[in-house]
Amino acid sequence: MGAIEGSAVEELEQELPSDRVADLVEYIVCGLVDDEAAVSLDVTDGDEGALIEVSCSEEDAGRVIGRKGRTIKAIRTLARALGQRVGTAVEVEVVG
Predict the structure, then answer these.
(1) Sheet order of strands, 40-45 included
(2) Is residue 50 part of a domain?
(3) What count of Cα atoms within 13 Å lies in the side-chain half-sphere of residue 44?
(4) Cα distances (Å, whole numbers) of residue 87 to 7, 21, 70, 82
(5) Which domain, by its residues, includes 58?
(6) Are 55 and 39 in contact (CB under 8 A)?
(7) pLDDT reported for residue 47
(8) pTM for the whole thing?
(9) Please, which of 6, 17, 57, 94 could form a disulfide with 86 given CB 3.0 to 4.6 Å?
């Protein structure tokens, strides 16, 4: 195995379950917003699970939240479902 292949394997082994959920959340949020460059995620892993804080521009925060919070509720549902599948509890918050 070459040096590049070995480092790729190490990265896969070190990936946390919350990273997979964060990738899903980032993919969904970037599809909703106009300014993808302003989107950033802060993942905090704790004993009880992971907290994913989504930061985006103020104009796009309304799109991520949706009318009466329906969009963020759907994102949370998908994140929790994947979190259960990979073995971690997940909460998603929009920081704006």
Answers:
(1) 40-45, 50-55, 90-94
(2) yes
(3) 8
(4) 25, 11, 25, 8
(5) 17-94
(6) yes
(7) 87
(8) 0.81
(9) 17
Q: DSSP states of 55-88 as a string?
A: E--HHHHHHHH-GGGHHHHHHHHHHHHHHHHHT-
Residue identified by tokens 């195995």 is 1
Write the pLDDT tens digit of every residue in 5-61. Answer: 555 555 555 778 888 999 999 999 999 999 999 999 999 998 889 999 999 999 999
2 found inside a domain: no
* Residue 9, in any domain of the structure: no
Burial of 2 (0-12, 13-18, 19+ CB in 10 A): exposed
| Cα atoms found within 13 Å of the Cα of residue 31, Cβ hemisphere only | 8
Instruction: Give Cα separations from 93 to 4, 41, 75 (angstroms).
Output: 36, 10, 10
Q: How far apart are CA 69 and CA 71, in angstroms?
A: 6
Q: Which CATH number does the domain housing residue 50 bear?
A: 3.30.300.20
Is 69 part of any domain? Answer: yes
At 67-81, the pLDDT tens digits run 999 999 999 999 999
